[in-house]
Amino acid sequence: MSATALPSGLQPAYHPSGEIRSVAHTGILLAGTNVNIFKNQPVALAIGTGATVNGVAIPAGQVYLAPVVATGTAIWGVFAGVEYVDNTGAPQETNCWIASTTVFTNTAITAWIWEDPAIVYTIQTDGALPVIAAAGTPFAQVDGKEYNLSAFTSGSTTVGLSQCTIAAGSVVGTGTQGQVMVLKTDPTILNNLSTSDPFVQLQVKIARSQYVAPVVSI
User: Fold this and answer.
1) Quick check: pTM over 0.70?
2) What is the pLDDT of residues 93-111, one digit of tens each?
3) DSSP assignment string, 62-101
4) Mean pLDDT of the chain
5) Where are the beta strands (DSSP E) in 11-156?
6) CA gap 154, 132 in Å, rounded
7) Which are the contacts of 129, defined by CB distance < 8 A and separation ≥ 6?
8) Rounded to whole angstroms, how far apart are CA atoms 157 and 37?
9) Longest C-alpha distance within the chain, in Å?
């Protein structure tokens, strides 16, 4: 319901093929990573320089996974879950990576990522959308416009879900780069019953991508 703030991050909603698939990547989420990474949270790939990042000393040239935490960061994909062997030797499969989780010695962690750029996601705004007047009727004009995200690192370690949102006041100008492009208002029942609803669910695609050409706002 768009009158209530209930964000769940970037939730996959649709793919042109009719099937939404996450992809397993082993070894990019490094043991010792001391930040939470929640299901439905945007993530990026980075290259180590020998410095310590998120609690891990990463060798130069090492590819590693990191949560997206800033509006200017390109998005590789969306975190779908993680598999690892814990320090007792028991296999674990969870929605989120809890900061500083201890894994069994010399075992690799597998991160599942929704990385297909064609995936359409549903995400909630963190406030009311800009409203303009047209023919005397106010409406939120968002289709085709781009926004940045907010509350990047918010989430629940109980259920493992992200609480990332769209920054409602972050609409970028024509020809300017944002992180996500709005396709339409999500058709969910009770969504956007009123133009004044403050927490609207929108369907979006990643616009500032790490591996396909960025698409600027209309």
Assistant:
1) yes
2) 999 999 999 999 999 999 9
3) -EEEEE--STT--B-EEEEEEEEEBTTS-EEEESSBPTT-
4) 93
5) 11-14, 23-26, 42-47, 52-53, 56-57, 63-67, 77-85, 91-94, 110-114, 120-124, 131-134, 137-140, 146-147, 149-150
6) 30
7) 140, 142, 168, 200
8) 9
9) 66
Mean pLDDT for the stretch of residues 121-145: 81
User: Is the CB of residue 21 less than 8 Å from the CB of residue 134?
Assistant: no
Least confident of 32-36, 76-80, 145-149, 187-191: 187-191
Q: Are 190 and 80 in contact (CB under 8 A)?
A: no
Closest CA to 168 of 190, 188, 143, 146: 146
CA distances in angstroms from 148 to 40, 75, 85, 123, 194, listed in the order given? 16, 11, 35, 12, 23
Task: Indicate if the pLDDT at residue 131 is higher than 80.
Answer: no
Q: Report how far apart the first and last C-alpha atoms of the chain are (Å, whole number).
A: 28
In the block, residue with structure tokens 């929605």: 95
DSSP 8-state code for residue 168:
G
pLDDT, tens digit (0-9, with 9 covering 90-100), for 40-97? 999 999 999 999 999 999 999 999 999 999 999 999 999 999 999 999 999 999 999 9
> Which amino acid belongs to residue 128?
A
Distance of CA 88 to the CA centre of its chain: 31
- With tokens 């058709």, the residue in question is 187
Q: From 55, 101, 95, select the one nearest 78 (Cα to Cα).
A: 95
